[in-house]
Write a structure and sequence with these properties.
It contains four helices and seven strands, in the order E-E-E-H-E-E-H-E-H-E-H. It has 125 residues and is α/β, with parallel strands linked by helices. It has one domain: STAS domain (Transcription Regulator spoIIAA, 2-Layer Sandwich). The chain starts with a strand and ends with a helix.
Length: 125
């Protein structure tokens, strides 16, 4: 699986390349997420704008990302969902669990607000 990684101060943007997130490449995504988490990144923007098809393994990889972020007191934001992917996410009722925003800029702003809230409320590690 090919993806680009853009590391920022407060978060990392992981942009998927290719059209499918499925059984063949979901393990690669999970591995990369584990590496990023081990490097100390607790906030991840997962840009799926290139993905037009996703299966249960792909959804599982996204849930791994969500758990890793939550466990490290961070935030996962999923962006750029294709209409077909949105349908599957809604059918799977993951739209109630995941933070889904249209653009990376909105995701960046959201993470910055979340970090500010954690700082004010003392929820930082």
């Amino acid at each position: 699986m090919k993806f680009t990684i853009d590391k920022k101060e407060l978060f990392v943007v992981l942009k998927m390349e290719g059209e499918k997130l499925n059984t063949l490449n979901a393990p690669d995504l999970k591995s990369e997420l584990l590496v990023l988490n081990a490097e100390g990144f607790r906030n991840i923007i997962l840009d799926l704008s290139a993905i037009t098809f996703i299966d249960s393994s792909g959804l599982s990889a996204i849930l791994v990302a969500n758990r890793l972020c939550k466990d490290s007191h961070g935030t996962l934001v999923v962006t750029g969902l294709h209409p077909n992917v949105i349908k599957l996410v809604k059918i799977s009722q993951l739209d109630s669990i995941l933070t889904i925003l249209p653009t990376n800029q909105e995701a960046s702003d959201y993470i910055k607000m979340e970090e500010l809230t954690r700082e004010i409320t003392g929820e930082q590690e």
